[in-house]
From TrEMBL, chain A:
<protein>
    <submittedName>
        <fullName>Uncharacterized protein</fullName>
    </submittedName>
</protein>
TrEMBL record, chain B:
<dbReference type="InterPro" id="IPR036890">
    <property type="entry name" value="HATPase_C_sf"/>
</dbReference>
<feature type="modified residue" description="Phosphohistidine">
    <location>
        <position position="44"/>
    </location>
</feature>
<dbReference type="InterPro" id="IPR008207">
    <property type="entry name" value="Sig_transdc_His_kin_Hpt_dom"/>
</dbReference>
<feature type="domain" description="CheW-like">
    <location>
        <begin position="770"/>
        <end position="901"/>
    </location>
</feature>
<dbReference type="Pfam" id="PF01627">
    <property type="entry name" value="Hpt"/>
</dbReference>
<keyword id="KW-0418">Kinase</keyword>
<dbReference type="GO" id="GO:0006935">
    <property type="term" value="P:chemotaxis"/>
</dbReference>
<keyword id="KW-0597">Phosphoprotein</keyword>
<dbReference type="InterPro" id="IPR036061">
    <property type="entry name" value="CheW-like_dom_sf"/>
</dbReference>
Length: 78, 901
């Protein structure tokens, strides 16, 4: 599982596939205060990006992957 | 070669064969809907399949053909003989291409000019489609966005970088990607696609629609709108995006479009006014250096994170890129208004006036939007009018609700630009109201009302201006059409694959029942069964040994009974495998309609081809060997046999000649009759020609019967055509036809009646893999003689053999039969030996219609053998038909009596 959830934090790593979107979305809805640690992400599926767009959870670390980081910048800067 | 390509080639050939046939049927019955449908499907599938490979030339040609057929299907085009000709030649060209691919794996570029010519030719046959349909076609594809403001979402660095990487004379490709809502379920990941866009220089991701509340939200519904810049070329982009063409619009951005200021929008009051005055002044005097100084000074004064600073940096950047005052002025004015410059609008106005004779006018108009209308040149007014009118038309087209908003926005933007260019402030306000009402009412009506109210502007619409306008607008339209074409192509290609896939699913049952097996596999089975037959034939020897050597009759009998069983199974197996190799003669016959049609047309003759019994089957090798001889015979019939329509009419025959080809099975042979009702062969002419060419002597000239005379056409070096035409006089005579048929064990007979027609009968074995041979003893060695040449075997007393001039003859059943002894024929030193009663064994054979006797030492049994041609160093040996392996392991040489005598 590329996403590890704790009570206050979700840590993303590697490639996050479309299958994870549902779980992530549920967690984000239930934990609006939860922080997102994205540093280890290499790529996330568009569905996951969508969940990150809708929910406004704080991002504690941006992805190191430049493409993923640019995606995040795009969806969170607006 | 990769198996997919191989399959494409073999299927492609099948398709083309079918297409050719259907075209001919269609030419006969132009309104046959079923055939048109089928034909279109074939061409469509062929094109779709070709899209799987990198074969643009082929795809283009087939696509052009498909377009024509599409029109035929829509009843916009009727099938004429001309159209059929063009389509057939296109298919011939495709066959050439397929050959080329088979040989070299690709299509050499040398075919490009021909292909282009062909495509142009086919396209020229396309009737014009009315505009309305074109519009509909356009709506299927994604329109390029008319709003380039997304560029501001890219960082300034990204855009500067992108500019640095593109050469000055090149535009930058941009794409707008709107993934369809259900795309996640199709396994698509828009982000992954975006990530790997070649030459990706920056992108923007937005929500396409406002998000629904969290509780109702389905995260598996895609709701993204993606814009991206790419440094790659168009072909690369198309290649990358080929799976989602309907969701993507690729368009070109002029370089200046990237100059979009971003940053902190907070105002520094009172600072800018002087600057803008000064800048405008510099621009007006085209004083670039002055402008630069002013901008530099301003930049020093303000915080670099400010929006204004960014705008000024872009101003410098545009200067660096060498854009003229019009671009700079547009940028400056937008900056002065604290607006993001609408480069889209600017680009449209500019490209419209790009070719205008009065180049200066356009920039002026843009430079100061508040200029009164009077300053627009006539030329520009004409253009203005045109654009204005187009908006009206645009609104009049019914649109799907999804596109509604976009269209409204685009029309509004365009109109705003237009009015601003005219300086009509009042109208601008009215337009704003109308657009708002339109938005609220969800209808174009208020906007249309505004347009009508504004009315057509009286413009001196004199002729030359209109022409110029036409010219300037046309290139854009053409380009758009071309782009659309490409997209449609791609989509159609995918559709074809899709439909093939569907068809494959539907016919899954059928597919299981028919296997496509490479011929080598069947040949291997054939070889194996051959060995099996040989091995099986060893059993009788074994039985004989059991009896003779080991004295056990019982064992011998048992072996024989087992042999009978194995024999039966082996024969059935052989039969079964032979069946696999059987092909209907149709495989060859299907080429004929085309051939006859083309040749007849070329000669100006009218011919009807009747084919019967095309499902008669024979071995693949036999069928294949039939092709060339039959084509030759047909050509002969068409060229020399069937007369010109007027000659036929004068002779009281129907104008249309009849050429019939009939196939039937007779015992273990296939008979093919080719009959025409032409002028027939004149025996007198044949006789004279044969005599002139020295084929017969004077004596024979007088005695030869008419029936025998016509057979002389088979003699080597005989050609009766007075003039060598490009059809039959190729130096290949009927003798070649005969010898090539004889190679596979076939025979040719010809009967002809002067004035009534000619009939040629070909008789071929069903299969040539198993031959029945008679074994004869010659000098202590066994030789085989194919049983079909053997007439009888007789024993002739030495005293009955007469010698005339060293040639031995015997009288047999009242006829004189020349005798050949095997020591002469095979150049051996063992003259045939008579038996104890002083009788010679004579094998009577029929060679070229003559009966000859061959004196041998003795006869043995007849046997079925698998005849293998002599190979390698022995291949050139004349006189032998081949070799076969016998049950005891020995090799039997089979004689070719025809060659020996």
């Amino acid at each position: 599982m590329p996403v590890k959830f704790t009570r206050t934090k979700a840590e993303f790593s590697g490639e996050c596939t479309v299958e994870e979107a549902e779980t992530i979305f549920e967690w984000l809805r239930k934990t609006p205060k939860g922080e997102l640690h994205l540093a280890g992400v290499t790529h996330f599926h568009a569905a996951i990006l969508q969940t990150l767009m809708i929910t406004q959870n704080k991002i504690s670390a941006m992805p190191r992957d430049s493409f993923a980081a640019e995606c995040m910048r795009q969806v969170r800067s607006a | 070669m990769n198996p997919l390509l191989q399959q494409f080639l073999s299927e492609g050939r099948d398709f083309i064969e079918q297409i050719g046939q259907k075209l001919l049927i269609l030419e006969e019955t132009p309104n046959n809907e079923a055939v048109v449908g089928e034909l279109f499907r074939f061409v469509h599938t062929l094109k779709g399949n070709s899209g799987l490979f990198d074969l643009p030339i082929l795809t283009r040609v087939v696509h052009a053909a498909e377009d024509l057929l599409d029109r035929v299907r829509d009843h916009e085009l009727t099938v004429t003989s001309e159209l059929t000709d063009d389509l057939l030649s296109a298919m011939d060209f495709v066959v050439q291409l397929l050959d080329e691919i088979e040989d070299g794996g690709t299509i050499p570029d040398t075919y490009l000019p021909d292909a282009t010519k062909l495509v142009d030719r086919l396209r020229s046959l396309l009737p014009e489609r009315d505009v309305h349909e074109d519009e509909e076609g356009a709506e299927e594809t994604m329109p390029a966005p008319t709003d380039w403001s997304w560029l501001s979402r890219l960082t300034e660095e990204q855009r500067v970088q992108a500019l640095a990487q593109t050469p000055a004379d090149q535009a930058i490709w941009a794409l707008f990607y709107l993934p369809e809502p259900q795309c996640f379920f199709k396994g698509e990941d828009p982000l992954l696609l975006l990530k790997h866009v070649p030459g990706l220089a920056g992108f923007s991701i937005r929500a396409a629609q406002p998000w629904s509340p969290l509780d109702e939200l389905d995260i598996y519904t895609a709701n993204l709108a993606i814009d991206a810049l790419s440094m790659a070329d168009r072909a690369e982009l198309d290649e990358h995006l080929r799976y989602v063409p309907e969701q993507i619009a690729v368009y070109q951005l002029p370089r200046f479009a990237l100059a979009v200021p971003t940053g902190d929008a907070s105002e520094v009051p009172g600072v800018y006014a002087d600057f803008f005055d000064r800048a405008r002044d510099c621009l007006g005097r085209s004083d670039m250096d002055g402008l630069r100084v002013a901008v530099d000074a301003m930049l020093d004064m303000i915080n670099p994170t400010l929006w204004m600073a960014s705008a000024l940096r872009w101003c410098l950047c545009l200067q660096d890129m060498g854009f003229d005052t019009s671009v700079l002025a547009f940028h400056l004015e937008a900056t002065a208004d604290h607006k993001i410059p609408d480069w889209f609008l600017f680009n449209r106005t500019q490209s419209a006036s790009l070719n205008a004779p009065d180049k200066q006018a356009a920039p002026i108009a843009v430079e100061d939007p508040k200029l009164p209308a009077g300053t627009l040149s006539d030329m520009e007014l004409a253009l203005w009018d045109r654009i204005f009118e187009t908006q009206r038309q645009f609104l009049a087209i019914p649109s799907a609700s999804a596109q509604w908003g976009g269209r409204l926005a685009s029309v509004y933007n365009t109109l705003t630009g237009l009015l601003r260019a005219k300086g009509d402030v009042q109208a601008l306000a009215a337009l704003e109201d109308a657009a708002e009402t339109s938005e609220q009412e969800k209808s174009f009506a208020p906007l249309l009302e505004f347009l009508d109210g504004y009315g057509p502007i009286a413009v001196c619409n004199d002729e030359p201006l209109a022409i110029v306008a036409e010219e300037t607008v046309v290139p854009m339209v053409v380009e758009l059409a071309a782009e659309r074409q490409i997209r449609q192509d791609r989509r159609a290609g995918e559709g074809a694959i899709e439909s093939t896939r569907r068809a494959a699913e539907v016919s899954a049952d059928k597919a299981v029942r028919t296997l496509k097996v490479p011929q080598e596999k069947v040949d291997r089975l054939m070889d194996l069964i051959g060995e099996m037959v040989v091995a099986k034939n060893a059993l009788p020897y074994l039985a004989a040994r059991a009896e003779d050597v080991f004295g056990s009759r019982e064992l011998g009998r048992e072996i024989k009974s087992q042999y009978a069983i194995i024999n039966r199974i082996a024969e059935e197996m052989q039969d079964g495998i032979m069946q696999v190799r059987m092909l209907p003669v149709d495989a060859i016959f299907q080429r004929f309609p085309r051939l006859v049609r083309d040749v007849a047309k070329q000669l100006g003759k009218k011919v009807r081809l009747v084919i019967e019994g095309e499902d008669t089957e024979a071995d693949k090798n036999i069928i294949e060997s039939l092709g060339d001889p039959m084509i030759h015979i047909l050509r002969n019939s068409l060229d020399h046999g069937i007369e010109m329509p007027e000659v036929r009419a004068a002779d009281g025959k129907a104008e249309e000649g009849r050429l019939s080809v009939r196939a039937s099975q007779e015992g273990d042979r296939v008979l093919i009759e080719i009959e025409d009702d032409g002028k027939g062969i004149d025996p007198a002419v044949i006789k004279r020609k044969a005599f002139e060419k020295g084929l017969i002597d004077e004596q024979r000239l007088d005695t030869i019967s008419d029936a025998d005379a016509v057979q002389l056409v088979f003699a080597a070096g005989f050609s009766t055509a007075e003039t060598v035409s490009n059809l039959s006089g190729r130096g290949v005579g009927m003798d070649v036809v005969r010898s090539s048929l004889e190679k596979v064990g076939g025979q040719v007979r010809l009967t002809s009646e002067k004035g009534k027609g000619t009939k040629i009968i070909l008789s071929l074995p069903l299969s040539m893999s198993v031959s029945n041979v008679m074994m004869v003893d010659i000098g202590g060695q066994n030789f085989g003689v194919p049983i079909d040449v053997v007439v009888e075997t007789v024993r002739i007393k030495q005293s009955d053999i007469h010698i005339f001039k060293q040639r031995r003859t015997a009288v047999l059943r009242g006829r004189i039969v020349p005798l050949y002894s095997t020591d002469e024929l095979l150049a051996s030193h063992n003259p045939p030996k008579p038996n104890a009663d002083g009788e010679y064994a004579v094998l009577v054979a029929r060679v070229h219609g003559e009966t000859v006797g061959i004196v041998v030492d003795g006869f043995a049994q007849t046997i079925d053998v698998i005849l293998k041609p002599l190979e390698g160093a022995l291949a050139g040996l004349a006189g032998f038909a081949g070799s076969a392996l016998l049950g005891d392991g020995s090799v039997l040489l089979v004689l070719n009596i025809k060659e020996l005598i």
